[in-house]
Amino acid sequence: MNTQAKPHSLTTAASPVGPHQGYMPGFGNDFETEALPGALPQGMNSPQKCNYGLYGEQLSGTAFTAPSHQNERTWCYRIRPSVKHTHRFAKIDLPYWKSAPHIDPDVISLGQYRWDPVPHADEPLTWLTGMRTMTTAGDVNTQVGMASHIYLVTASMQDAYFFSADSELLIVPQEGRLRFATELGVIDLEPQEIAIIPRGLVYRVEVLDGPARGFVCENYGQKFDLPGRGPIGANCMANRRDFKTPVAAFEDRDAPSTVTVKWAGQFHETKIGHSPLDVVAWHGNYAPVKYDLRTYCPVGSILFDHPDPSIFTVLTAPSGVEGTANIDFVLFRDRWMVAEDTFRPPWYHKNVMSELMGNIYGIYDAKPKGFVPGGMSLHNMMLPHGPDKTAFEGASNADLSAEKLEDTMSFMFETRFPQHLTAFAAKEAPLQDDYIDCWTDLEKKFDGTPGKK
Ligand SMILES: [Fe+2]
After folding, report:
1. Quick one: pLDDT band at residue 18, thresholds 50, 70, 90?
2. Cα separation, 70 vs 68, whole angstroms
3. N or C terminus: fewer CB in 10 A for the chain?
4. Ligand-binding site membership of 8 (annotated)
5. pTM (2 decimals)?
6. Is 314 helix (H, G, I), strand (E, B) or coil?
7. CA 356 to chain centre
8. Which domains does the chain have, with CATH numbers?
9. Closest among 15, 18, 14, 23 to 248, alpha carbons compared
10. How far is ligand 1, taken at its centre, from the CA of residue 316, in Å?
């Protein structure tokens, strides 16, 4: 009698799950992807000869010797090695894209500032010519700090490519749709999504639906990472599976082309005869990624008071001082407000960190008027701020039943370094001269009477 059990019959998944064709889920995963079958070597990185006559090349996003849990690199298998994608460099000027340190002696950065949306220009602007620096912080040469930008893009880059050796770019669209055709694949991006383009990655930006406007945080320092959740545990806030990295895509196209390089705060151009987006297959953990902000699961107080705004951190870029970020990216999205006997909007405060905010859509609860979609505000290091009179009186007298804060999505780029305004931010952008007056009407209520509220 045969006592051997019959093998179980397993049912195999037929196709990827979910609506994200063309992307792989995960944050910082070790991905592998190939646009042609057999293009990716298996079991090794550097075969004597790569399939299809491809060149093997490593892109290192961290030092070779970075600790294992921080080490990031990607192996690319490409039509030409990257040394063919640059030639001699010539300096060019992109006068609106500034890098720290950039301290204009004619500009006062000490103040509470707010801007209306920067309007689009009459002339066509690309990702490069349409970048408008609002603030800079730290020092690009020592790789600390950041810059904040507004982009105004109406024209696609044609046979033109870019990479920043200075920074990774966190992109927050507010209007229009853009395509980022990168060496490692294609990211399509729309409002309520964000993307991170790593330092050194070559790409081209096309307008899918214009005009396009949004915000950019240029991170000179260590890469953005997910914050530790502490006692919150393994779930909520930004979940790893909701980050999407594109599958491999390449173009084999010969055409006179320009590559622009941002390096040590300066811009350079080099001419080549083909597209540098020629990576047929790759594997590794240094790659572009996008994330849908609508998948962010906010955590908050469920009885009284509310936690510090850091409870809404989506991504954090460390500074080397534990718990003190080079940059935190913080999201204020729709959520339930349920705290009892509590002043529910953000409280009045002064902060050692410098807070730059942008409105993606809707109404922000601490400023019901004046902070509009596409607009920005800056509350610099140790400058007090908080709700305006309308918000204060409303929240102080509100019926505190459970209330859903709807039609709202704003964010903050918060850095440990003071943010310096550019001349564009101070003189050309639509600065609201009367912003500081939003606190003028706040009354002194104290008259020494106990029990008065
Ligand atoms: Fe604040």
Report:
1. low
2. 5
3. N
4. no
5. 0.95
6. strand
7. 13
8. 19-103+122-293 (2.60.120.10), 296-437 (2.60.120.10)
9. 23
10. 17
Residue 211, preceding peptide bond in cis (omega within 30° of 0):
yes
Report pLDDT for 252. 97
Q: In this structure, how many other beta carbons lie within 10 angstroms of the beta carbon of residue 438? A: 23
List the one residue out of 353, 289, 406, 416 whose CA is nearest residue 24.
289
* Interval between CA 355 and ligand 1 midpoint (Å): 6
The annotation status of 102 as a binding-site residue, yes or no, is: no
| Cα–Cα distance, 139 to 191 (Å, whole number) | 30
Residue reference for tokens 């811009």: 267
Looking at every residue in the chain, the average pLDDT score rounds to: 95
Spatial CB neighbours of 276, under 8 Å, sequence gap ≥ 6: 80, 82, 85, 161, 183, 202, 257, 259
Whether residue 34 contacts residue 40, with contact meaning beta carbons closer than 8 Å, is answered with yes
Q: How far is the CA of 270 from the centre of ligand 1 (A)?
A: 43
Angle at the Cα of 33 (from 194 to 53), degrees rounded to 5? 125
Average pLDDT over residues 320-337: 96
Query: How far away, in angstroms, is 240 Cα from ligand 1 center?
Result: 27
* pLDDT recorded at residue 174: 98
Q: Which residues are catalytic?
A: 306
Q: Is 361 annotated as a binding residue?
A: no
What are the E-state strand segments in 240-353?
Answer: 243-246, 254-263, 266-274, 279-284, 289-292, 313-321, 324-337
| 364 annotated as belonging to a binding site for a ligand | yes
Residue 12: pLDDT band with limits 50, 70, 90: confident
Q: Which two tokens stand for residue 178?
A: 């853009």
Return the closest-CA partner of residue 187 out of 174, 199, 173: 173
Q: Is the pLDDT of residue 369 over 90?
A: no
The identity of residue 64, as a single letter, is F
